[in-house]
Amino acid sequence: MKKLIYDIINKLNGQDIQFGDVRFTSTDSQTIFFEKKNLKHISKTTDAEALGIRVLVNGCWGFAGTDVVDVTKVDSLINLALSNAKHSARFRHTPVKFKAIKPTVGSYYFRPEEDPFLMSDEEKIEYFQNIAIKLNQNPSIIHSYVHTNFYRQYKVYANTEGTFVDTLVYDTMPSMSVLAANKNGMQQRTWPGHMSTRRGGFEVVRAAKLEENIDKIVKEVIDLLDAPTIQEEKADLIIGGGHLALQIHESVGHATEADRILGMEISYAGKTFIKPKMLGNFKYGSEHVNIYSDSTDPRGIGYHLVDDEGVPGRRVDIIKNGILMDQQTSREIAPQLKLEASSNMLASFADDFPLVRMTNFCLAPGKAGSLEDLIKSTERGYYIDFTKTWSIDDNRNNFQFTTEIGYKIVDGEIVGIVKEPTYFGITPEFWGACDAVCSESEWVFHGTSNCGKGEPGQAMHLSHGVAPARFKNIVCNVKA
After folding, report:
1. Residue ranges of the chain that CATH labels 3.30.2290.10
2. What is the topology classification, in CATH, of domain 2-225?
3. Which of 18, 94, 170, 264 could form a disulfide with 56 if both were Cys (CB 3.0 to 4.6 A apart)?
């Protein structure tokens, strides 16, 4: 396959173009789903190949992709990309311009401890069936599931500047859930939470300790049925890492994708309240809020040698001591904002056009010590975690989030639980209320494999490094 990519690049170099690149992906995936005690779904896709060619002609992009990789059709694919660029250039008022960058040549192959694609289906089914059975031993559980997805992708990227990189990665998403009901309604508890995808193979499943946490979530879901709700109109909230990862994702990550500023991404996933003039001066949060994009950290799903237009992986400070400093950008967008391209241009598969996407988008650890320390230093409030529902407006500004469970704190001690803790906020006001972030010992990566963006839609794999944090005087009830 590398020879084919070389051949395509050589052909692109023979064309009258400003820039060209080519991507190839081969993707394997498997999903195993148990509902109650029964195997409801198992599927496997292997060697799903795709090829994409992108060219810049007369200041306009042209792209052509296919999920049927046929060597005899390569010339027609190149011609289609060229034709798309030339015809589209007639309608583009401002030509795309960017500087050449030094080429990158290299390889990265992630080696899982346990390759799930080398394990038998019978072994994996037996493992998850054991968990599914144990989830249903309590008669109060009316529904449950165990859902796992395994993913492996080989990618080759090359461009006319001389960059040539191939990579192999594995991602795994384990999840389980229980549902209980009584006269007070229904409650749900999941484990390990909404953002459970991690870089790795079957070892990710074992690290999630599904079986070891069955008793915990079964007890909690039953206790939640009769638990109270938060009655205060405002309260101090300590938000656990699993849910805080989603809060960062929705109210900072998507908001700082710079294509939204320029109106290039509106109809499907919304725009942003951020304006170019805010860079370098806008107070996005308190001095405790330091958020960065870092595609150089191999612990996260968003790690890469180069993005899908050849920009080497970078760490970029998006928010520094509460001030908005930078954006997630592409080579086309960055110069328009007087920024350097941040290595955030990615596509799910080779036949998708790359978009500005999150990679490893992280909240830096603070100095508040452990989660236990943070709870002890909280006089009154709640520790909440495990995402249940969320909603945010198309400007990434006004939001509402609900978690599955909250733990009431009085004088630094947990004294009980509350169900469905809900909070409301405006993005800069909410992040401005952050007065403490736990230290490095609590900082871990949380990840998702289904971040949606684009039309046609693409699902991206990405990570959020985060530690629990406290937010003061947050609205928990909206009184009529």
Report:
1. 2-225
2. PmbA/TldD fold (3.30.2290)
3. 18
